[in-house]
Amino acid sequence: MRFGTLDFTQALDSPELLAAATAAALGASEPADAAGVLVSAIDPALADTAAFCEHYEISMADGANCVIVQARRGERTWYAACLVRGSDRADVNGVVRRHLEARKLSFAPMDAAVELTGMEYGGITPVGLPADWPILVDRSVAGHERLIVGSGIRGSKLLVSGAFLASLPNAEVLPLALTG
Fold it and tell me: Is the pTM of this model over 0.85?
């Protein structure tokens, strides 16, 4: 399948284009769900959203960014993923903080995000995140027919449906994007 200027194939047919955690999660999912997840190799230097979209002729609204946040309340620290379209920003200090019942919320430090996910920074995807992490999916992502997301590595991207992202374990659909 072609999307933008990229050619996509079934992700499970190209495990070398996936982080180990991503491949394992797809391998454990329902075969019909996994068959709908496609992958394409990209230039790793173009993995960041704006550069990727411009180079591969894909709208920022057709991509979803996976942002890892670190929540704190008292002595407890935990992590969650937020998925918003590439053209939007997540309301981390409002909706996300309140939903997670955190006193303090910040973007996870890069080193912690990489170590805890087993994925490359700039390629982190919700597919294959630690099983106990909440995955907060913006409703505009959940309703999108086809979206580009990370694959767990910087050298490829996944093409998935919003419905697939909303069906991931621990996924919750919320109005996360800031408007205006």
Answer: yes
* Cα–Cα distance, 70 to 80 (Å, whole number): 7
178 Cβ contact list (under 8 Å, min separation 6): 88, 89, 90, 91
- DSSP lists the bridge partners of residue 67 as 82
Q: Domain 2-174 falls in which CATH fold?
A: YbaK protein (3.90.960)
Give the CA diameter of the chain: 48
pLDDT digits (tens, 9 = 90+) for 120-135: 999 999 999 999 999 9
Which residue from 148, 126, 127, 113 is spatially nearest to 8, judged by alpha carbons?
148
pLDDT tens-digit map of 80-125: 999 999 999 999 999 999 999 999 999 999 999 999 999 999 999 9
Which of 28, 30, 33 has the alpha carbon at shortest distance from 10?
Answer: 33
Q: What letter would DSSP give residue 170?
A: T
Under a CB-based contact definition with an 8 Å cutoff, are residues 86 and 56 in contact?
no
